[in-house]
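Next comes this protein:
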Amino acid sequence: MDARIILLASLRCSTVRERLFNLTTSQFRVVQKSRAYATQDLPGRLPTSSRKQITVTNDDGRVHWKELSVKEKVARTTQQTFNFGIILTGLVMTGGCAYFLYKEVISTDSKTVQFNRAVDRIRSDSRVKEALGSDHKIRAFGEPTWNRWARARPIASNSYKDSQGTEHFMMHFNAEGSSRRGVVFLHTFKAAGETEWKYKYLALDVRGQPRIYLENSDTTPRKEHSRINFLGMQLRK
């Protein structure tokens, strides 16, 4: 009788232990699954990786746009906007420099072109060489300055457009030879619709000597047209 009781008690204990083991195993699996779900990436969260956070200063564009967080997308957008602004500013400055270079140096309307053309005429004229001295090349420069180190001296000039649409340009500068110094005066004009500048006058003044005219439209003889008399009417040929 006692042996039967002991046997039944042992069977019951083993059954309870088995149920407890099964329960503990199932609970452990539930806990493992919950941890696995907890470690997965949530929407809008950064993926668990070893990369550094993208900022305005360290973004090199290697990380794909979809992998960025909202904060990192703002940083990349800010960086790209800043870079685009720098490029746009550089293009504007380059265009401005190119326009200034063309307007002041290359264009036929520029002061530099007018000055160089007049200097070439002065240096090639025999009367100017005789008046200033031709031992060495005649030097042309702008207004005198007290600073002897100043290489670029200002050149006095003026331009205007009259009521008929004709553009006028006036300038004066200094010319110096081996023996004397003089002042060159020029006045050019360009009629409306024309592209070529013409001299109204180009003259050199040397102290103690009469003015030397290299160009003077007031004294340039005009071409006379021959006339044909036809039935009492004067026709130009």
Remarks:
- Residues 43 and 67 are 11 Å apart (CA to CA).
- The chain has a mean pLDDT of 77.
- Helices lie at 2-39, 70-106, 111-124, 126-132.
